[in-house]
Amino acid sequence: MSEVAQPSVSRRAVFLVGGYERNDAAGFFRRIGREMDRFCKCWSVEATLKTPVEHAEVSVTTAAADYRGPDGACRSDITFLSFDDIVKTDGARPFMVRLFAYLVAFFDYILSGTMFRFFATNWRFALYFLYPFVMLVFFAWLATAAYRLAGHLPLPGGPLLPLIVGAGAAYGVGRFIGRRYFVFHLMDLWSFSREHLHCRRPVMDARIDAWAGLIDERLSATTYDEVLLVGHSTGGALILDVAHQLAERRVGEGRPVHFKIVTVGSTSLKVALHPAARRARMRLEALARHPDIRWTEFQALTDIINFYKCDPYAGAGLMHQRGDAFPRQFQVRIRDMLERDTYRRVKKNFFRVHYQFISANSRRYFYDFFMICCGSRPIEAVRGDALPISVEAGKTAEAVS
What we know:
The chain is α/β, with parallel strands linked by helices. Helix content is 47%, strand content 14%. The chain has 14 helices and nine strands. The longest helix has 29 residues, at 123-151.
């Protein structure tokens, strides 16, 4: 069967929710600007990013990207939907408050059976879930070992000095490792995820409603050939909430519901697999009832912070009657997106690998975040066996590290 030709995109809107991170909109667009230079070198195309414009009331910032390549020209309005202020507020709490909230979340995931569902669905992600708890146990063991060792020394003051030595060892090592290797940040991530799925984060709920309202206004004011709602990492779950709220708004206003969802390196199942996540599953089920909404998901084996070869809809225990795949899934190979030396350098850094989903490639590959967001081909044109634009015979991409 011959491939159906897809109409080109000359005007696109991209609305992106990233992961649970402290990076604000300014930092995001600085990074996008650097990565866009690599993207241009890789594909031998032209792309420029305009000055970002902030809409502080709803925590969004937009920058236009102009693209020109062999496949045509396109202008994309890229909007970053930010919740870094919420992340920073979580991280600013006293450590014991953060620790208590994390332990409540950890044992909630254990006692609800969700962790065991992680193992049954994707054991790599389950190990990622266990990582901060294992590190905390290590810090506690270190404190105990230092206390016992000091207790064997002829120190004055009875057990007081050994206690200080043990606490100091745990604090010093824990502070260095905990910050450098994101242990404390991941503690906050899991407490945030638990509270959100239990509908106990009204600030986040209000933010999602505000984003949906702004997107609705943009779509009503401007005609776009393609509208992409993109979610990466934790944003893969949040963007589904945004999509649901946007669809409900537009149905209520009698407007067409015609946009596309793209999830990359998504962790949406960390929410949907929890028995208490009834709202998330209800919203996901409602999205499937809109036939004009298309959903594409990209996953990678090398990235442990996603659910590889897992259907996020069926995995949530849902079924639909659509004639198309919802979502349409692609498994990508990170090593095929990067030059060999670059891949060898980053492959053991699982956070860096995770962020390759929203970084520029240094090799031409069918999955390219910038080509999806900036190029002139629609998301439906993505195929696992074809490059986004033609490649001259014998020409290889310039190595970019």
